[in-house]
Each structure stands twice: as C-alpha cells, then as structure tokens.
Amino acid sequence: MLEMRTTINPTVSGFIAHHPRLGLAQLLFLVSALFAPLSLNLVGGFTVYDLLITVVATLLMLTGPRGLRFPPRELNTAIWVFFLFTILSAFRAPYPLEALTQTL
After folding, report:
1. Cβ contact 46:53 at 8 Å
2. Do 59 and 26 share a structural domain?
3. In-domain check, residue 1
4. Do residues 55 and 28 make contact, with C-beta atoms less than 8 angstroms apart?
5. What pLDDT is recorded for position 81?
6. Do residue 75 and residue 62 come from a single domain?
C-alpha cells in the first residue's frame, strides 16, 4: 500500500492569519447567554439577561453598521399623532401588559 502524507505549513508566504475580534455588542451577547438560565431578578420580572440584551440592542442601534436614522421632518406630525393615539389606547387597556404592547 502506498501511503500519502501531506503537511500543511501555515507560514507560507502570502498567507496571513487574521483572528476575528469580538466587538462590545457581541461580547455582551455571549455573556448574556450565560446569565439567561440563571434568571437573576433585578426588579420584579426584569432579569440580568433582560438588562444585557437591552444594552446590546441599544449598542447596535447607536453604533451598528446601519446605525439609527431619524425619519424625515415631514413625518413628525404623523409620528406625534401616532404616539398620542397609542398613549390614549394604553389608558383603555384592562391590563398593564396589554397597555405596553399597544404602545410598542
């Protein structure tokens, strides 16, 4: 039997290994995965996991590849009317969670 052996030399010229770096948002997301099964409550039902995911979402909105873009000025009136009616409908909601979902 003929046996073939191949050796791989990572120092071949022209081959440069780049190690990916984790950003702050990715690192916080990975850390939050460790806290998820622990269910450490901060206030009421708000857990450490919820806090970390909220921070990650805020970081992605502010510093992400697309970033947070504001709508054109022509839409300001429509936005304020929408907010007014969501707040009014939240007052009609029989349960607090329903008021929150109507506002969101």
Report:
1. no
2. yes
3. no
4. yes
5. 92
6. no
